[in-house]
Write a structure and sequence with these properties.
The structure is a single chain. The chain is an alpha/beta fold. The protein has a single domain (about 5-125), classed as Hypothetical protein MTH538 (Rossmann fold). It has helices at about 20-30, 50-55, 70-85, 100-105, 115-125; strands at about 5-10, 35-40, 60, 85-90, 110. A five-stranded parallel β-sheet has the order 2-1-3-4-5, with helices on both faces. It is globular, with a radius of gyration of 14 Å. The mean pLDDT is about 85.
Length: about 140
């Protein structure tokens, strides 16, 4: 699955207020995949400078934090489009949908399956088109 040699630079949303611990849950899920190497930059501990955005392979939006920091999400969405950085949105844990407006702006939307998260990051980084979330059955 994973290249093994590639180190992905990810900018991940992290809020001061995270009552459902979305960030820690995300980190636990992605860290389950031992052969996936990444360098994390997060929005709480890193200044969002142009120099930082130049390093980023994928911006990861944790949808569970959206209602607590809409301005940050809007800024990241704008930067994603301005600088052509792929945007991955991860649904709130236990939810199968996100706001339609965020879904339309994201390059990919996935749930909490670690394989799906990593597959989306690799696909977006390779500039391949994302077809559908890998963890949702197709509507019949």
């Amino acid at each position: 699955m994973s290249d093994g040699n590639k180190v992905y630079n990810l900018l991940i949303t992290k809020g001061e207020y995270d009552p459902t611990e979305q960030y820690e849950f995300y980190k636990g899920r992605i860290n389950e995949e031992e052969d996936f190497l990444y360098k994390e930059y997060n929005t709480l501990e890193h200044e969002l400078t142009d120099e930082l955005f130049e390093k980023i392979d994928v911006i990861v939006l944790l949808f569970g934090l959206y209602k607590y920091d809409k301005e940050l999400f809007d800024e990241l969405i704008a930067k994603s489009k301005e600088l052509d950085i792929p945007l991955l949105s991860i649904r709130f844990y236990g939810m199968e949908a996100i706001l339609k407006e965020l879904e339309e702006k994201a390059d990919a939307v996935v749930g909490w399956n670690p394989h799906c998260i990593i597959n989306a990051i690799e696909t977006l980084t390779d500039r391949e088109n994302w077809v559908k979330p890998c963890d949702i059955a197709e509507d019949e």
